[in-house]
Design goal:
Rossmann fold; two-stranded antiparallel sheet; 7 strands; 10 helices; 5-stranded parallel beta sheet; single chain; alpha/beta
Length: about 280
């Protein structure tokens, strides 16, 4: 086995665990943004098990890379990644969405270690990331700022103002990750407000652009490495085509799975499906 094969096997196991943690949290409330968590798990696995410089026992370490969850409703996915990274204990997932929990249903920085911003007011995360990247530069801090966002947020003018600003300031330590699952609350994203040709748009704004299959770990891994080491002084964006519900076929096939309500027996059915397809070494 090559080093790359071993790395991909480790990442596949991490992505499997992230999906499983998210399903277990969804079961606590009987509903949630589980489809997004399943679809975004591969990107989060590469982020938290390969790319980000972190200290799990010191989530406020000044030298850490920042991961900003602009789409705050993806919190269930982010909590799963924070558990995988060792920043949150697995035992807390049973408190998801409950009173006094550190895991509210929408991400809040004041509650959760490792949650850099309070997302949920969609379209704001990239602007915050631009300001954060500028501040780190002024302080001489070489940390990277990653901004995770949804394709529905591309409808917001503030996103494109931030994209133009990032290019103007040549923020080469800013990496934007866009989940292109083509779904938002009001329907398919490209039908609500068509954003294509997306690669051309980001390039026109001065960004280094990669578009990949966000559920192909080899592509995700290569894209993260390319973005981090791209030699030109410009911000970088990775556009990730993903499948909502990835890994659980009966959730993949739902016409509307932006916010999922799952019948009680189906949670165990989904977990059983994941367990049957667990990669080697993937034990939660």
């Amino acid at each position: 086995m090559t080093v790359e094969d071993a790395r991909l096997r480790e990442l596949a196991a991490a992505a499997w665990r992230i999906r499983r943690y998210a399903l277990r949290m969804g079961e606590v409330q009987g509903q949630g943004y589980v489809g997004q968590a399943l679809g975004w798990a591969d990107v989060l696995a590469v982020a938290y098990r390969h790319a980000l410089r972190l200290r799990p026992d010191d989530p406020h370490w000044e030298g850490r890379d920042r991961f900003l969850l602009s789409h705050g409703h993806y919190a269930i996915a982010h909590y799963a990644a924070l558990i995988e990274a060792g920043i949150l204990p697995e035992s807390e997932l049973e408190t998801y969405g409950s009173d006094d929990s550190r895991l509210p249903m929408s991400g809040m920085a004041t509650y959760t270690p490792g949650m850099e911003i309070s997302g949920g007011s969609l379209g704001q995360g990239l602007a915050i990331g631009v300001g954060m990247a500028l501040a780190l530069r002024h302080r001489g801090n070489p940390a990277y700022v990653y901004v995770s966002m949804s394709d529905g947020e591309l409808d917001e003018g503030a996103v494109w103002e931030a994209a133009m600003s990032a290019s103007h300031w040549r923020l080469d330590h800013l990496i934007c990750l866009v989940d292109l699952n083509n779904q938002q609350a009001d329907g398919p994203s490209t039908q609500v407000l068509n954003f294509e040709p997306l690669v051309d748009k980001w390039r026109a704004f001065g960004w280094h652009v990669q578009r990949i299959d966000g559920n192909d770990l080899a592509q995700v891994l290569q894209a993260f490495d390319t973005a981090r080491h791209w030699p030109q002084p410009q911000p970088r964006v990775i556009l990730c085509d993903t499948l909502m519900g990835k890994g659980v076929p009966f959730l993949e096939q739902r016409d509307k799975n932006h916010f999922i309500r799952v019948d009680p027996p189906e949670w165990q059915q989904a977990l059983d499906i994941l367990d049957q397809t667990a990669p080697e070494g993937a034990r939660a």
